[in-house]
Specification:
The complex is a heterodimer of chains A (331) and B (400). Chain A has 331 residues and is an all-alpha fold. Chain B has 400 residues and is an all-alpha fold. Chain B folds into two domains: 61 residues, no CATH class; 220 residues, MetI-like fold (Orthogonal Bundle). Helix content of chain B is 75%, strand content 0%. Chain B is built from 16 helices and no strands. In chain B, helix 10 crosses helix 11 and helix 14 runs parallel beside helix 15. Chain B is globular. Classes of the chains: A mainly alpha (331), B mainly alpha (400). At the A-B interface, helix 1, helix 6, helix 7, helix 8 and helix 10 of A face helix 3, helix 4, helix 9, helix 10 and helix 14 of B. Chain A: Belongs to the binding-protein-dependent transport system permease family. Chain A: One of its GO terms (biological process) is transmembrane transport. Chain A: Its main location: membrane.
């Protein structure tokens, strides 16, 4: 047991180190911007006093390394700085009505929304994909297997927005069963919220199912040639039971691994899907901030996405160690 | 709630029909093993398949126009889909048949073993290549040519707001959509292809170098690639595009160049991993040792000894990488930070035309416009994936 703990701690430390380096990469990339944030914010109305004032306020007059550690320590405390959106700096050009919106304030509710979307997707996609994979392995090389194979391959290779618009066309415009706009607000009932999240979640399900299903099928079929499965078959156990009771437990490691990796992939897929459905999640905020060059928000979103990505990859790693005795007790 | 009830009822009815079908089969065939050992789930599957086919045929022959002369969009879309699917299947079959007849013995054998999906993929890739290379000759107008009539509806019927000169209509500033769709093949596919080539050049060279040199050089490269791969690629691309857009300023074409560079660098990390892994296996071979002892230089080792032997896995990876790059570029363009106007591009077209999808009930052809652009992207990636899938299966041969 001790060695397992040691391995997990090692992986965790490695993950933290990666995250730290990633934060440096993100910070450096952003600091390669030409000119000055202050001038970029003020644009035409830049007076030297206003520029100096903003520079002081944002700490731009300090050395980059000092700024980096300020940003990092702030991020650790949950303080990601203030958004650069024009309204926030109205006070510097004479109009004092501007209210500051902190990045954390902007991100928190949207982060919860995105998590909700990812959760709903995972709840649909994972059982669906594993079931499809098991069935495809059971009836391998049949018509069902081929149809499942071709349709999942088609859905994984289509761009997210194509799947999204096809779903909108059939489930929202021609047969209005689900809303095509996911205008989610606070204090919404769970049922209504679920209904509005359904189309984006279905789109993402189509995107991530293929990989998980193919992996499940391949992992199970790989085991079917082994002697103990032969034995179980000769005992006269039904094919379904052979797969569920005998093959599946040993195929769990690659399946869990691919599930976690696909959840990590969801993080990227969520951006486009949220834009299509105007879903108020972190992906949409990210794209909007990219367009108006709202650097602190871009930086923060990037860090959150990277952290989630690293965390899920780490989980995949640790789970596959835990589910494999050979890795659990390394020689 | 009612919908759920009907779904459950239909499920139960199909299950019952499956049981009856199995029972009838057992009776009729005198308990042949095929029916005796059939589980209820399999029977259900057969019945479901038959039900879907019957429904599809019934729906296909529904009237496409109501008595008032309005188009029934659902039926129309379904017919287009079925016809498109059938045409592609038939053409792919003919293509394969043709391939089996002419050509050298090698290509004949290749076509004989080819599944229909792979033939379809090859055919689509060929068509796209022709469209991309000869876009200027095929397209009726230039991609940035602006006409007087804006927002002409597709169909070319002047009575319904169309224009015979513009088969697919014009966009919001009066550019011919058919021409833009064809030029999209040149721009979107061309840029994606160039980006993939650049990514392979970078990733492949550094991967092989790392495999040959090893030591600290390999360590530094591998660790930095690890870090870059820890950031999701679309997110990283968006972050870098923010910066690139500031660098490019008002020079829009510069932004497209930056995008190619950014995506090439991000994707070269994946190529690096593969090239290094494959190279590592090759470097320990005796013929490499022999070449080293002959006194061959590094370029000779990489390009004449390692590269030819690493070609097969790299080629399969090239197909997959191209899909990724193509989808990333399309996504970036769709989000509005990718290929910049006036270049015609499918991702941007989808974004600009997307709102027409809400008119599906009134004008199905208009609603199909954004789907055509998005479908053009999907079709190519599906085709490449089919071909790569076949190549991988041929080289590995999945177990059982």
């Amino acid at each position: 047991m001790n060695s397992v703990l040691k391995i997990i701690l090692q992986r965790l430390a490695l993950g933290l180190l990666t995250l730290f380096i990633v934060s440096i990469v993100i910070f450096t990339a952003v600091n390669m911007l030409p000119g000055d944030f202050a001038e970029a914010i003020l644009g035409q109305g830049a007076t030297p006093e206003a520029v100096a004032s903003i520079r002081r306020d944002l700490g731009l007059d300090q050395h980059p390394i000092v700024r980096y550690f300020d940003w990092l320590s702030g991020a650790l405390r949950g303080d990601l700085g203030n958004s650069f959106a024009q309204a926030n700096f109205a006070s510097f050009v004479g109009d004092d009505s501007g209210v500051r919106v902190s990045v954390a304030q902007q991100i928190a509710p949207r982060f919860a929304n995105t998590m909700f979307l990812a959760g709903v997707t995972a709840a649909i996609a994972v059982p669906f994909a594993v079931m499809l994979g098991i069935l495809a392995a059971l009836y391998r090389n049949s018509v069902f297997d081929k149809v499942a194979n071709i349709s999942t391959l088609t859905s994984i290779s289509s761009p997210e927005f194509f799947l999204a618009y096809v779903l909108i066309l059939f489930l929202a415009v021609l047969n209005p069963v689900l809303p095509s706009l996911s205008n989610i607000y606070e204090g919404m009932g769970f049922g209504e919220r679920l209904q509005k999240t359904m189309l984006p979640a279905l789109t993402l399900t189509l995107v991530v199912t293929a990989h998980m299903m193919r992996m499940t099928r391949a992992a199970i079929i790989n085991l079917l040639a082994s002697p103990y499965i032969e034995m179980a078959r000769l005992k006269g156990i039904k094919p379904m039971r052979v797969i569920i009771k005998h093959a599946l437990p040993n195929a769990l490691a690659p399946i869990i691994n691919v599930v976690a990796l696909n959840l990590a992939y969801l993080i990227t897929g969520v951006v486009v899907v949220e834009v299509v459905f105007v879903y108020p999640g972190i992906g949409q905020l990210f794209v909007d901030s990219v367009k108006i060059r709202d650097i602190p928000v871009v930086q923060a979103c990037c860090l959150i996405f990277a952290a989630a990505y690293i965390l899920l990859n780490l989980t995949a790693d640790i789970l596959s160690i835990l589910s494999n005795p050979r890795l659990r007790h390394p020689k | 709630m009612m919908t759920l009830f009907w779904i459950a009822a239909g499920f139960a009815a199909l299950l019952a029909a499956g049981w009856v079908m199995r029972f009838a089969g057992q009776m009729a065939t005198g308990n042949k093993p095929a029916f005796r050992d059939m589980s209820l789930a399999v029977a259900f599957g057969y019945v479901l398949g038959v039900a879907v086919i019957v429904f599809a045929v019934w729906y296909y022959f529904q009237p496409a126009v109501t008595e008032q002369g309005m188009a029934v969009a659902g039926v129309l879309f379904f017919r287009w889909a079925v016809q498109g699917f059938a045409i592609f299947a038939i053409v792919a079959w003919i293509f394969r048949f043709f391939g089996r007849m002419v050509g050298s013995a090698g290509t004949k054998k290749l076509f004989r073993q080819m599944p229909l999906t792979a033939a379809f993929g090859l055919l689509v890739i060929l068509i796209y290549a022709v469209l991309a290379i000869f876009a200027g000759a095929i397209a009726p107008y230039g991609q940035a040519e602006v006409f007087d009539q804006v927002n002409a509806l597709p169909g070319g019927n002047a009575a319904t707001g169309g224009n015979p000169a513009h088969l697919l209509g014009t966009d919001q500033i009066g550019r011919d959509l058919l021409s833009r769709l064809i030029y999209g093949a040149q721009n979107t596919v061309g840029i994606a292809f160039a980006t993939t080539c650049l990514a392979f050049f970078l990733g492949g060279t550094f991967g092989f170098l790392a495999a040959v040199a090893q030591g600290w050089f390999d360590q530094i490269l591998s660790r930095s690639v690890d870090v870059l791969m820890a950031i999701p690629s679309l997110i990283f691309a968006l972050l870098l595009m923010t910066i690139a857009s500031a660098w490019a300023g008002s020079e829009k074409w510069l932004l497209t160049i930056y995008m190619v560079l950014i995506i090439a660098v991000i994707d070269s990390t994946r190529v690096f991993r593969l090239a290094r892994a494959v190279g590592m296996n090759i470097v320990v071979m005796d013929y490499i040792e022999a070449a080293k002892l002959r006194g061959e230089g590094l370029p000779y080792l990489i390009f004449r000894e390692i590269l030819p032997n690493a070609m097969a896995p790299l080629l399969a990876e090239f197909g997959l990488r191209f899909c990724f790059v193509f989808l990333t570029i399309a996504s970036l363009s769709f989000l509005g930070v990718g290929i910049q106007p006036p270049l015609a591009d499918w991702g941007t077209m989808v974004r600009d035309l997307a709102q027409f999808i809400n008119f599906a009930a009134f004008s199905p052809l208009t609603a199909a416009l954004p789907l055509m652009a998005a479908g053009a992207i999907a079709l190519l990636t599906v085709a490449v994936n089919f071909v790569v899938d076949w190549m991988l299966q041929r080289s590995s041969g999945l177990k059982e």
